[in-house]
Amino acid sequence: MAATPAEASMDDNGLVTIQSAHSAADTLSRLEKVLKAKGVHVFARIDHAAAAAEVGLKLRPTVVLIFGDPRAGTGLMQADQRVGLDLPLKTLIWEDEGGHAFVTYNDPRWIARRHGLAGPAAETAGKLAAGLEGLVGAAVGGQTLP
């Protein structure tokens, strides 16, 4: 059973990891569908496994999806432009040796702490974190997407 965002693990470096109820490929597809439905722009998809295969190396499914919405991230960069190193947001969709799929991402609240953001910017990061949890939760969960 996949973890809910509330059950997700977060380590000291701000990484949140949630197990998916779906394959890595299906999780990626579902996340892209959810982002599109919410009007979030997908900037890039980086398929590390495909790149490894091009040079004769093997790697389990490992894809980075880079996405964002200037309405959400610009306020953080207005508070400290160096936040631009951590934006747009990105998720890593990957498969472990047992064939289980996971989504890992940087918690926006951790990004805010990393850059010393407070006040309205920290509040924005909290809202961004809640939104990201919902998007990823929809992608990894067992529910049918519209």
Number of strands: 6
Q: What would CATH call the homologous superfamily?
A: TT1751-like domain
CATH class identity: Alpha Beta
* Main sheet makeup: 6 strands, antiparallel
CATH architecture: 2-Layer Sandwich
Which percent range describes the beta-strand content? 15-25%
Question: Roughly what is the average pLDDT, rounded to an integer?
Answer: 92
Cα Rg: 15 Å
How far the N terminus sits from the C terminus, by CA atoms, comes to 21 Å
Silhouette: globular
Q: Are there runs of 5+ residues with pLDDT below 50, and where?
A: 1-7
The tally of domains stands at 1
User: Can you tell me the CATH topology?
Assistant: TATA-Binding Protein
Number of helices: 5
SS-derived structural category: alpha+beta
SSE sequence, one letter per element:
EEHEHEHEEHH
Notable traits:
about 150 residues, disordered N terminus, single chain, TATA-Binding Protein, about 25% strand, 5 helices
Structure characterization notes:
The protein is an alpha+beta fold. The chain has one domain (5-140): 2-Layer Sandwich (TATA-Binding Protein). It contains five helices and six strands; from the N terminus they run ββαβαβαββαα. The chain has helices spanning 24-37, 48-54, 70-79, 108-114, 119-140, and strands spanning 9-10, 15-19, 41-47, 62-68, 89-95, 101-106. Strands 1-2-6-5-4-3 form a six-stranded antiparallel beta sheet. The radius of gyration is 15 Å and the shape is globular. It starts with 8 loop residues before the first strand and ends in a 6-residue tail after the last helix.
